[in-house]
Amino acid sequence: MWRRICVELETTPTHLQWLAPFTCSTGPDGALQRNKQRGAQKNKIRKTGDSKRHPCPAVLEHFDEQYSEELGDLWAPARAVLLDPPSWQYGVMLNRFSSVTDITQILLSRGFSSLLPQTDVPELFRNDASTVSNSTHQKGTDTLSRPCSSKWRPEDFRLLPCITSHPFRQPHQSELPPHLPRSSLQCYIHPRPLRFPSQAHRPGQLKQYYLLNAASLLPVLALQVRDGDTVLDLCSAPGGKAVAIMQSATPALLCCNEPDPHRRDWLAKTLESFLPPSLSSRVMVSAQDGRSFGKSEAGFYDKVLVDAPCSNDRSWLHSSCRQQGQQRLEDRARLPVLQTQLLRSAISAVRPGGVVVYSTCTLSSLENYAVVEAVLNDFPGAEVESLWEEIALPLSKYFTFISRPGHKRLDAKPSLCPPTDAPSCSHDKLGILVVPQPGKTWGPMFLSRIRKKG
């Protein structure tokens, strides 16, 4: 049972009303959970792309007007990707607290490759699955140490076409992205849009992997969590980034905040599915209004992630009806106010010398660069750190990154990621943006890292 900090508020904060419609899910695991909540049939992920999803004309018209100006020539191919869900790629993030050897072999045999250079997982975590399986809630059974794949139907793997590759082949050292430090975070990706089967939630049993848009891991990489850190995930539901944080390191405390009760239950279920009970003393679920942390816990955290509620371009473009699309466009204009308040709260909650990572899953400059710039004007003791050489250059093989000059004008031309041998860029003043492109359909994902001066 995950510990909860339930903070009662005198009035229902507007933050509760914002989060449910605006917060984006990280991939099929999030989408599958929503389908279950709506009474959808099991294994919905296997049917992705079977039915045509039609874009909302009002939203598409708005995107065309805004993004053609902000993104220039990149908008036409990005538009084509967003309009074609069957072309979307998905990553498979492995769970280091579960036995994953069989899954790794299956992924490699199907042509998947590791996104990040790997380090050996400590023996503590290799054995943690069996430790969990012997806990009281398992009643003596050893279900967690057994590979879950034996419970899958054979037809699940027929979804994955045979790819000519060397079975169980690990990437050669020279093939790994340059400059990225080795990580215990394991994510496998494929150049084609293959849908790996999703695993159902089973109480008391850890999942082996989490399906997600691989770009959603970039904010976690930028956060640089280390063992012993105190970390706040300010807008945590549905929990994919919290799980990724725990795959990357073992913080002294990870506070996962989610004020909306339904989304908080979803978050708790995600944590239960991927983290053993032995970590429950380190991982807490909070119910605060995210804008209050700057006052209630000022200067407490080493690292804060603000994966802010945003106008999720992938889902909003496919709004169910014109009325919903129009409502979302009206809401979109108000989002930067909330995002700015959350980022201000995060910077106040981090200690001097600590870092805040702000991220969204929208291409909109008003929700990305403009928010960061507005908050920096209020915090002269905070500064943006470049992510270009640390993340954009090493991963440019897999993602299409752009960065804008740090000016208020929204018509500034974006700059494509330069060759890997180019000198350090000086134009990524406020953050970097992943733009979906054919063959690299990851994103949208914006990320900016801000350090509070000591």
Primary descriptors:
about 450 residues; alpha/beta; eleven-stranded mixed β-sheet; four-stranded antiparallel β-sheet; 15 helices; about 30% helix
Determine the N-to-C terminus distance. 37 Å
- Which residues sit in consecutive blocks of at least 5 with pLDDT less than 50? 5-21, 31-50, 123-177, 405-415, 417-427
Q: Output the number of helix runs.
A: 15
Radius of gyration: 21 Å
SS strand fraction: 5-15%
**So what's the overall shape?**
globular
Average pLDDT rating: 78
Task: Give the helix/strand class.
Answer: alpha/beta
Oligomer: single chain
The description of the largest β-sheet is: 11 strands, mixed
Provide the succession of SSEs: EHHHHEHEHHEEHEHEHEHEHHEHEHEEEE
Number of strands: 15
Which percent bin holds the helix content?
25-40%
